[in-house]
Amino acid sequence: MRNERGFTLIELLIVIAIIGIIAGIAVAQLRTAPQKAREAVLKEDLYAIRDVIDQYFADKGKYPESTPRRPTRTRTPPAASST
User: Fold this and answer.
1) Buried (b) or exposed (e) across 9-41, using 16+ Cβ within 10 A?
2) DSSP of the chain, one letter per residue?
3) pTM for this predicted structure
4) Which has the closest alpha carbon to 44: 52, 32, 56?
């Protein structure tokens, strides 16, 4: 009788395939991580702004006025020279 030590080729292939599948799933999940992080930061910022506006309302009894848009600068054409 042979005293077998180690793994067979089939066992190694199965383990490598399982590791490959798990790595593929992990990479797919990590691709969306930056977008989810940005959304989480945006959500926290919006919550903070809403909280500050509510505090302003509690102090003043009215909501702050919105600032008007700044007018856009239009470019004037250069003056025609009469030479």
Assistant:
1) eeeeeeeeeeeeeeeeeeeeeeeeeeeeeeeee
2) -----S--HHHHHHHHHHHHHHHHHHHHHHHTHHHHHHHHHHHHHHHHHHHHHHHHHHHHSSPPPPPPPPPPPPPPPPPPP--
3) 0.50
4) 52
pLDDT at 76: 67
pLDDT of 52 above 80: yes
Count the residues in the chain.
83
pLDDT at 83: 57
The residues spanned by each domain of the chain are 9-60
> Is pLDDT at 21 greater than 90 in this prediction?
yes
